[in-house]
Amino acid sequence: MVKVSLDNVKLLVDVDKEPFFKPSSTTVGDILTKDALEFIVLLHRTFNNKRKQLLENRQVVQKKLDSGSYHLDFLTETANIRNDPTWQGPIWAPGLINRSTEITGPPLRNMLINALNAPVNTYMTDFEDSASPTWNNMVYGQVNLYDAIRNQIDFDTPRKSYKLNGNVANLPTIIVRPRGWHMVEKHLYVDDEPISASIFDFGLYFYHNAKELIKLGKGPYFYLPKMEHHLEAKLWNDVFCVAQDYIGIPRGTIRATVLIETLPAAFQMEEIIYQLRQHSSGLNCGRWDYIFSTIKRLRNDPNHILPNRNQVTMTSPFMD
């Protein structure tokens, strides 16, 4: 295993080492262990420069769009991918075969229990849009998932008791959505800069729970948000490969569904699947962020002025 130095790694908050949700004894200290920190620091140091380059590329594209010198379209340099019928993704992963009913919500403890008790196939536990990115929300979200996967999430409040209706192996499949590549976790600094929030969310969940999920007959599954280029999907794929090698599980165990919620990504859907290949579990459309992205990217185009938002429905031609 690679030796990772925690020199020049600074956590700017105190780590709570007292259990908050009794009878569970899990604390934030059980999540932010030395081993787990070494893992996410390794991922950050390995991939952060590439992450920043890709974010800079977003700005370059926006400047070209604003000036009118560039128009979004399918990429000529990846036509070979779109026109090649021989490549394919993997077979369906355990727990992802039927996704006809899927719900989502933040990783709050009571909501996680209610969602896992719901008559649905999968639950997207969301560290992104539906969760305010406060420190407590993010780290206690990890605590809640840690406990849920180990069937120890039951807890009581003065008004109500919360309890799983059975073993989590037989309940809806958990899919975690980490924060996007553009976000950072400002409470943890690595080499004098905040750690990538994507790596923070993904890394802690994966490190603590991947092998437990495999024992349950499922696996570490993710939703990937806000991507704007197929090379951002390749970056995720590279992260997945290093992560799986690090803890000693086969490549392809991780599966990821990509949310197509930006205008540039809509022109690169096949390329995104291609870059993830063995880790792909399909695509999904994020309506509201896609509309926002369209407005933002085409903000200087006089030929693209949208009506009021309530008139932009899924029957609008560019949303169909």
UniProtKB/TrEMBL annotation:
UniProt GO cellular component terms: peroxisomal matrix
Span of domain Malate synthase N-terminal: 17-79
Catalytic activity: glyoxylate + acetyl-CoA + H2O = (S)-malate + CoA + H(+)
Top-level taxonomic group: Eukaryota
Domain Malate synthase TIM barrel: 173-320
Biological-process GO terms, alphabetical: glyoxylate cycle; tricarboxylic acid cycle
Full protein name: Malate synthase
